[in-house]
Amino acid sequence: MHVILNLIAVSSMFAALSFLGSVKTIAAHPNVLFIAADDLRNDLGCYGHELVKSPNVDRLAARGMVFERAYCQQAVCNPSRASILTGLRPDALRIWDLPTHFRSQHPNVVTLPQHFLQHGYFTRNIGKIYHNFRQTIEGDPVSWSVPAVMHFANHGMDIAKVDPLPPNLAIDPKCEQRDVPDEAYFDGRVANLAVEALRELKSQSQPFFLALGFWKPHSPFNAPKRYWDLYRRDEIPLPKNPIWPTEAPRTAWHDSREMLGIASRELSEANMREIRHGYLANISYFDAQLGKVLDELDKLGLAENTIVVLWSDHGYHLGEQTLWAKTSNFELDARVPLIIAAPNSSSAGKRTRAIVELLDLYPTLADLCGLPKPIGVQGVSLAPLLAKPQSAVKAGAMTQHPRPAYYDREPTKAPTTMGYSVRSDRFRYTEWRDWKTGQTVAHELYDHLMDPDETRNIVQQPQFAPDVRASASLLEQFNPIVRPGWQPVLP
Q1: Distance between alpha carbon 266 and the CA centroid of its chain, in Å?
Q2: Is the pTM of this model over 0.85?
Q3: Can you list the positions of beta strands (E) in 183-303?
Q4: Of 129, 149, 337, 382, whose CB neighbour count within 10 A is largest?
Q5: Could you tell me if 96 and 415 are in contact, meaning their C-beta atoms sit under 8 angstroms apart?
């Protein structure tokens, strides 16, 4: 396995040099437009979804590279975003919950935007990039040239700001359908602020790193009515695989409390269809706001020298495998959309099936923008894939999640188990390890060649024993901290 990884590294280096040689027509330090979506799974036209209306994401994909197999490091907001923005895995950060600020664990870590700031970039944050930390911390001020805006709130605060307030045509408590303008909600205002910011940045001499954090398609599903009207409810199917996977350990399950509440309300078929409808409406609402920003980037002539990156912090369940929302290690939660559009490059309109991770974005952008390699990051540059989409930069991707999913809300304030899941070319393999002893208490194997929806855990089937051993070996390459004999230091 080490030989394979070394060969990947060598081929990646030559591919990176090839790519960097192909973009000499842009400035030595191009601008960066760093765009985050919240809870967006791969339900996009450019990823093959048949119903969704996402024309602006799709046009960005047409001028960039689509990463078909990109994975988050933990399927919940704070650990995922902290990992992306520091280039460190949740274990290295010791962050697996929502409340912990990464500076409390690593006060001197240099973040992705901070690295750009230290090397001559003007950095700015509009919307949700870091998690919604308490106002005394204000996100992460040292990352930005000017104070962040619209970055602190919670999703429940995203209520329609319009008077008089039109009626709500939805029935589910997680849904809202009102005939209001885009600016009634957060993302419409984020897009408007982004357009204003681009006009200001156009006149500056230094390159910019503009981070835009859209709050959708995260619940509540409250897109303005015009986006609901893009879809017919009777054409939106119920979950394809709503049953818990055969032979899957129960520790892999969670109670879907984000959508169902602690009391776990029952969803009728009508509610399920409305929620799935609302999720698509939220995607189209987000897509329209993205379109406003891309239009302005083109109008100002900035697209010619701006790298645009679109990513989501994690995926999402909409009733598949009995689950709603996130916090699992399954493919639907771990896999995310990722598009990198570098101007004047040969990667425009191409796709790659190479396995990549979101923490790779930090070294990738430093590489593409000619900045020094960041120190200590655990990701790798994806520039080689922009030159050679058929190449590989790593053998797998690791996603993890504790149980209980929100252990910080439990009396012990500590997990009971940590699930480590590694996605290889064919398989997803997961080990659930006891937090105190490090012993593996359950494990899973899903064959994505024969079972892409992960409906059956085949880890005990004898014919897959070699694949289990190979997958377990690959997992150890990522050096998960919870292992036999490991003594935890509780957060």
Answers
A1: 28
A2: yes
A3: 208-217
A4: 382
A5: yes
**Range in 27-31, 232-236, 420-424, 471-475 with the lowest mean pLDDT:** 27-31
Select which of 77, 106, 115, 151 is catalytic.
77
Segment 309-322 mean pLDDT: 98
Determine the pLDDT at residue 477. 96
Pairing of strands 122-127, 208-217: parallel
Whether 3 contacts 397, CB under 8 Å: no
The active-site residue, picked from 115, 131, 317, 443, is 131
Cα R_g (the chain), whole angstroms: 22
Tokens describing residue 222 = 């409250």
3-state secondary structure of 298: helix
Parallel, antiparallel or unpaired: strands 31-38 and 306-312: parallel
How many Å from the N-terminal Cα to the C-terminal Cα in the chain? 33
SS3 272: helix
- Tokens 């509440």 appear where? 261
Residues 167 and 178: their CA atoms lie apart, in Å, by 6
Q: Confirm whether 131 is a catalytic residue.
A: yes
Q: Report the candidate in 432, 408, 427, 413 with the shortest Cα–Cα distance to residue 252.
A: 432
Residue type, 30: P
Neighbouring residues of 250: CB distance < 8 A, sequence distance ≥ 6: none
